[in-house]
């Protein structure tokens, strides 16, 4: 029998920066945690220390596909959040925000779970109201290079509110302002990670524009505390709610502070301001103070020192790997602010489609083929043997889902479902094959799937 306080909690994007800290905190509170991530920007390193916990489970899955699990609460954090990452594949970014929201809301409706949406201060766009309050509707460019993220998150908020009004779903929406701390991606292009990596590597610190634009930085521990407090509020409090640090700093101020704290000899260099980059970001957290009794408590210098320690370990690990394998290091993420290595992003995109957990059964079907029972141990020979069994081509494993595993994009057309095929994204699912995320599919035995109306 389950303890009354112990919940089954799903965290999408759980291997990312915020998600990994949230998983850690929920485990400390005694809950069962299912971490779902496609590792597009999240890493296994972030949650490696949690894998031995009997209450922790890791699943590789892309939220743009429906997910069928039994949980009590859902924290939907899945979406690349830095401009470098979300602008690399803007269509997929919008899909993650919109399709991901639809799928997670459908799951929450089916299992009667409470659901939390990690929205963003970017819904305010280049705000002409300062500081930003929840009632402000924003000033967003709907067709700019940042729109895939900004408008995707705005649409997700719309979906959450409509599921609340139409289906009575228990929802929570948090608008997250700039957050920093250990486990930030070293090459995500954000202010703190950029400045830290450049200062600790004695590289010039890049400031865009004149450096007078402002941001407000909240330490990750404070932010996770706010997530859990908001999730545990009564149903009547849905949000949106601003979560962040109301203390405002200019880019020049934060750059100088990091140089001083790290003892770096880096100089500050200036580059043109990116398109649609907001001029001000400062949350009005009056609602969070009143409803949650929450405000950030970690001093900036203390949080920056902890973050610097993390990035020192990152740089040391990169140096060790460089010494051991120069060729492997050439393919590693750059420590400069220009962004992650293209090959890393491409690998993550392939993994996103290949390793969706809902398609594992199709792999096991192939492995049960009698012709494959005595496969050679060598990977190359094993792949050749499978090609013979499957009739040649570049398809390594026979799939019954809409996505085929592939290396070069050359696919046996007989294995591809009807519908458009995009080499980078896989075939579109035809309209008549649409899967309703609100309803669990029928079981293999032919028993009808459980609807969201069943207990």
Q: Care to count the β-strands?
A: 15
Rg computed from alpha carbons, rounded to a whole number of angstroms = 23 Å
Oligomer: single chain
How much of the residues is beta strand, in percent? 5-15%
Q: Could you list the spans in which at least 5 consecutive residues all have pLDDT below 50?
A: 333-373, 389-434, 443-455
Distance between the termini: 18 Å
Order of helices and strands: EHEEEHHEHEEHEEEHEEHEHHHHHHEE
> Numbering strands along the chain, what is their spatial order in the largest sheet?
3-2-1-4-5-6-11
Choose one word for the global shape.
globular
Give the overall pLDDT as a whole number: 79
Question: How much helical structure, as a percent, in the residues?
Answer: 25-40%
Sheet with the most strands? 7 strands, parallel
Structural class assignment: alpha/beta
Number of helices: 13
Précis, in short:
The chain has 13 helices and 15 strands. By secondary structure, it is of the alpha/beta class. The longest helix is centred in the C-terminal third of the chain and has 25 residues, at 300-324.
Topology:
Layout: E1 8-12, H1 17-28, E2 32-37, E3 56-60, E4 73-76, H2 83-88, H3 90-111, E5 114-120, H4 147-167, E6 171-176, E7 179-180, H5 191-200, E8 205-208, E9 214-216, E10 218-219, H6 220-231, E11 241-243, E12 248-250, H7 251-262, E13 268-271, H8 286-292, H9 300-324, H10 326-329, H11 342-354, H12 360-367, H13 379-390, E14 421-422, E15 426-427
Parallel strand pairs: 1-2, 1-4, 2-3, 4-5, 5-6, 6-11, 7-10, 8-13
Antiparallel strand pairs: 9-12, 14-15
